[in-house]
Amino acid sequence: MRGKDLYEARFTYKGETYVLYNKNLKLLQNELAAKRYEVEHGFFAKESKVTVDSWFHTWMEEYKKNSVKYGTYKVYLDEYKVHIKEPLGRRLLKDVRGEHIQKLFNDMAKRYSHTTVNLVRVILSGMYTQAVRNGMVLRNPVKNTSIKKKKRKRKIRVMTQEEQKLFMRYSKTSQFYDLYIVALGTGMRSGELRALQWSDIDFDNKIIHVNGT
Fold first, then answer.
1. Is residue 201 helix, strand or coil?
2. How confident is the model over 18-29, as a mean pLDDT?
3. What are phi and psi of 9, to 5 degrees?
4. DSSP-assigned letters across all residues of 76-93
5. Does the model's pTM come out above 0.85?
6. What burial letters (b/e) apply to 78-106, b meaning 16+ CB within 10 Å?
7. Burial level of 59, CB count in 10 A (0-12/13-18/19+)?
C-alpha cells in the first residue's frame, strides 16, 4: 500500500515498468489486468505530456498547412484562438475528457451558431484523431460528445426582377454599383466577386472565369 490512501500495483513488460494506483484494491486489480492486456496486445499507447495548445500548432504546421487551402488554414487558427485556446489550451492532451469538450460545446451553443460549434468540433476531432494515430493518446474524446441539431433554415427569399431594378436605380451613386451589376447578372457569391482580377475577365467573349474566393 502506498501511504495511507492508495494501493500500488506494478508490472514490467519488455523492460518497461507500468505503475497504477487506486484507493480500491479490487478496482486496482481489475485495472492492472486490463492494462497488462492492453500492453501485451499492443493496444496501449504511451500517453504524452504535450498540451492541447502545443499539439494544435504542431498539427496545423505538420498535417494541415499543406493539405488545406490557406483560407481554411486561417479559419482554423482563428477558431482555435477564439474558442478553444482559453478553456482547453493549457490542459495536457491526454487529460481532456469528453465532458470537458461537451461543456465547451454547450457553452458555445448559447452564443454561437450550429455551424461555428460544428467547426470547433471538426478541429478538435481532427487533432485527436491524429494524436491517436501517433500514439500520443489512447482515445479520441470528441467521439463521446454531441452538438445540438441544426435549426431549420428560413427559406431564402430572392429579389424579384422589379425589386432588382429598383435596387439598381437607387444604388447608382454607390461605389459598388458595378459590383452589384455583376452580382445580379451572374449569381456569383460574395467571396468570388471580391476575388476577381482583371485577368479573370474575357471581354472579347464576354466570359468571367471564377478562379478564387
1. strand
2. 85
3. -135, 145
4. HHHHIIIIIHHHHTTSBG
5. no
6. ebbeebbeebbeeeebbebeeeebbebbe
7. buried
Distance CA 143, CA 127 (A): 12
pLDDT of residue 42: 63
Look at 22-31, 146-155, 161-170, 195-204 and tell me which has the smallest mean pLDDT: 146-155
Burial (0-12, 13-18, 19+ Cβ within 10 Å), 124: buried
| The dihedral sign for the CA sequence 22, 23, 27, 33 | positive
Which of 38, 40, 44, 37 lies closest to 132 in space, CA to CA?
44
- The arithmetic mean of pLDDT across residues 69-73, rounded, is 92
Cα–Cα distance measured from residue 78 to residue 165, given in angstroms and rounded to the nearest whole number: 39
User: How far separated are the first and last CA of the chain, in Å rounded?
Assistant: 64
Q: Which three cell numbers stand for residue 143?
A: 467521439
Tens of pLDDT, residue by residue over 26-44, are: 888 888 888 787 777 765 5
Residue 108 burial by Cβ neighbours in a 10 Å radius (0-12, 13-18, 19+)? buried
Residue 139 CA to its chain's centroid (Å): 17
